[in-house]
């Protein structure tokens, strides 16, 4: 009779399942597994069966690391060993980058083989072949285009942070902040042409032979020693006189143009505002670089050289200002008769009479509404006899080429005669702010023409010698449309700034463009900021003059 031996039952009082490991499995490691794991795979004789990346993890365990319990670990201590020579082995020049080159070569070869196999497998119709050719051509075009852009982006130097035009002190308080996107949406239509209050100065006639200059018969630019007066608003004796009888906002055309075109500016600039009673005076700082002409300010890659480099932003600005002054005088009929306004130049000293640059001043009044009367000193550079014998007032400005490789890639000597539009379009892109300010100055003055000269360096590494390659002239209103300058927006920006300053209490303020952001701030500054000893002496002299006038009036009354 069979005998049944019941197995030993383990009692687990705290749960269920076995309490201890059976003796035959005691020293074996446990490998976790899932019932869903595949236990094997077919022999792969071709090497291509499991190349599809979607099936790479087909035979991996659901519990991760595979047979990690059976992995071999070398436990011998090797910390006491070290290499004698720890320097990296330097490969010779011909071996560097060989691996990447080989990988790219193999990848291209593999793609070519695959395309060839696909072409052999199917027969394409004529239309399909044509489409395939177009597709391949478009693909090569995109690779060429975007590959070039990526290369340029890699080579492009990061933009450096620019310095502010004046160091902001901790005691200065920001009273208003205006961002350019909001300012560019303002508009103030129907501002009438200005009314002439006073005209003074004398101008020479433009020499029309410079209109025939081309790249084939270029003219060497001369250095002409003449005095240019860049007098600020409150130092102008005529504006001081006019302020007693009319107007409540006073400025020069250069200051107004900077404010009206501020949304195009990139570099930092600053303007001092003084509120005296209900009057506003806009001034430039003494010893500031306000009158220097920027170069490639709005270019995609503005010049970023530093220090004494000839292509640093400041040295380029000095060169452009020097060229503009000399060109504007060289193209005149110097020594011939002049056209003079009723009054003489108010800034001429006795010893400067023969050396004064050709300039005519118009003091004009503009009505901006809301009881705002703007008085501005505007300038003409010369006069020109029109086609019908009429007299035209013109402004003469200069565009200069410094190095075509870094300023748009358009070589003036080869393009100026045939493709002048391309040269001008590049200048509009690179110097949008400067051209807009020149146009605004011409419109404020009521000039009939604005004439541009194209001047280039004789050699791109020499900033002392220049040649004139050609000239071009426009009517200011037409040129404003061409460069997309909206005067309604410009007047709106100016009116917004004036209204903001009129709401401030009496005192001195500074308007400054942020050097790295499209933002303009108004700072409340102490009254003695930027003051010099000369200014104090001038004020004392004025007070003495006023006292003398009052005493003489009293004497007349007594008589």
The percentage of residues in β strands lies in 15-25%
Radius of gyration: 39 Å
The DSSP helix count reads 12
What sequence of helices (H) and strands (E) makes up the elements?
HHEHEEHEHEEHEEEEEHHHEEHHEEH
* Order of strands, widest sheet: 1-15-14-5-6-4-9-8-2-7
Taking the sheet with the most strands, its summary is: 10 strands, mixed
**Mean pLDDT level:** 82
Structural class: alpha+beta
The general outline is elongated
Q: What ranges have pLDDT less than 50 throughout 5 or more consecutive residues?
A: 542-559
Helix content: 25-40%
Number of strands: 15
Distance between the termini: 164 Å
Describe the secondary-structure layout:
Layout: H1 98-121, H2 126-155, E1 173-179, H3 180-183, E2 195-204, E3 219-220, H4 237-243, E4 249-252, H5 253-260, E5 270-276, E6 279-283, H6 313-330, E7 338-340, E8 359-369, E9 372-380, E10 382-385, E11 391-401, H7 412-415, H8 420-430, H9 432-445, E12 449-457, E13 466-474, H10 476-482, H11 487-502, E14 507-513, E15 519-525, H12 533-558
Parallel strand pairs: 4-6, 4-9, 11-12
Antiparallel strand pairs: 1-15, 2-7, 2-8, 3-13, 5-6, 5-14, 8-9, 10-11, 12-13, 14-15
């Amino acid at each position: 009779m069979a005998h049944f031996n019941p197995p030993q039952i383990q009692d687990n009082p705290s749960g269920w399942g076995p309490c201890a490991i059976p003796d035959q499995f005691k020293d074996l490691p446990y490998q976790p597994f899932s019932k869903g794991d595949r236990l094997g795979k077919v022999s792969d004789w071709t090497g291509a069966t499991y190349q599809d990346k979607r099936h790479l993890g087909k035979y991996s365990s659901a519990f991760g690391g595979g047979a990690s319990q059976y992995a071999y670990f070398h436990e011998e201590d090797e910390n006491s060993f070290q290499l004698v020579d720890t320097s990296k082995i330097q490969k010779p020049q011909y071996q560097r980058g060989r691996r990447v080159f080989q990988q790219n070569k193999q990848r291209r070869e593999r793609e070519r083989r695959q395309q060839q196999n696909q072409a052999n497998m199917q027969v394409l119709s004529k239309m399909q072949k044509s489409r395939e050719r177009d597709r391949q051509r478009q693909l090569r075009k995109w690779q060429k285009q975007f590959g070039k852009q990526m290369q340029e982006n890699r080579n492009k130097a990061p933009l450096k942070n620019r310095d502010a035009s004046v160091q902001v002190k901790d005691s200065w308080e920001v009273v208003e902040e205006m961002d350019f996107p909001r300012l560019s949406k303002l508009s103030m239509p129907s501002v009438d042409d200005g009314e002439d209050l006073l005209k003074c100065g004398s101008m020479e006639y433009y020499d029309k032979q410079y209109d025939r200059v081309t790249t084939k018969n270029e003219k060497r630019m001369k250095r002409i020693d003449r005095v240019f007066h860049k007098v600020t608003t409150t130092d102008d004796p005529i504006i001081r006189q006019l302020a007693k009888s009319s107007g409540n906002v006073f400025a020069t055309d250069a200051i107004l143009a900077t404010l009206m075109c501020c949304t195009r500016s990139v570099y930092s600039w600053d303007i001092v505002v003084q509120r005296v009673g209900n009057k506003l005076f806009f001034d430039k700082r003494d010893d500031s670089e306000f009158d220097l002409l920027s170069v490639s300010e709005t270019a995609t890659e503005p010049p970023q050289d530093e220090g004494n480099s000839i292509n640093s932003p400041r040295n380029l600005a000095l060169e452009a200002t020097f060229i503009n002054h000399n060109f504007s005088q060289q193209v005149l009929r110097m020594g011939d008769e002049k056209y003079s306004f009723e009054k003489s130049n108010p800034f001429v000293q006795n010893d400067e009479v023969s050396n004064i640059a050709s300039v005519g001043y118009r003091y004009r009044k503009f009505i901006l509404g809301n009881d705002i009367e703007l008085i501005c000193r505007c300038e003409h550079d010369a006069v020109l006899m029109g086609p019908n014998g009429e007299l035209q007032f013109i402004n003469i400005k200069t565009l200069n080429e410094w190095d075509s490789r870094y300023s748009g890639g358009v070589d003036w000597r080869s393009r100026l005669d045939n493709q002048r539009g391309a040269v001008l379009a590049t200048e509009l892109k690179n110097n949008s702010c400067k051209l807009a300010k020149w146009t605004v100055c011409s419109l404020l003055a009521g000039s009939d023409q604005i004439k541009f000269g194209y001047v280039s360096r004789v050699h791109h590494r020499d900033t002392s010698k220049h040649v004139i390659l050609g000239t071009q002239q426009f009517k200011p209103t037409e040129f404003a449309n061409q460069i997309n300058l909206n005067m309604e927006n410009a007047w709106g920006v100016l009116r917004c700034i004036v209204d903001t300053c009129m709401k401030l209490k009496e005192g001195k303020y500074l308007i400054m463009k942020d050097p790295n952001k499209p933002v303009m701030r108004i700072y409340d500054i102490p009254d003695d900021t930027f003051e010099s000893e000369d200014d104090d002496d001038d004020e004392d002299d004025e007070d003495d003059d006023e006292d003398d006038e009052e005493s003489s009036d009293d004497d007349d009354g007594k008589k």
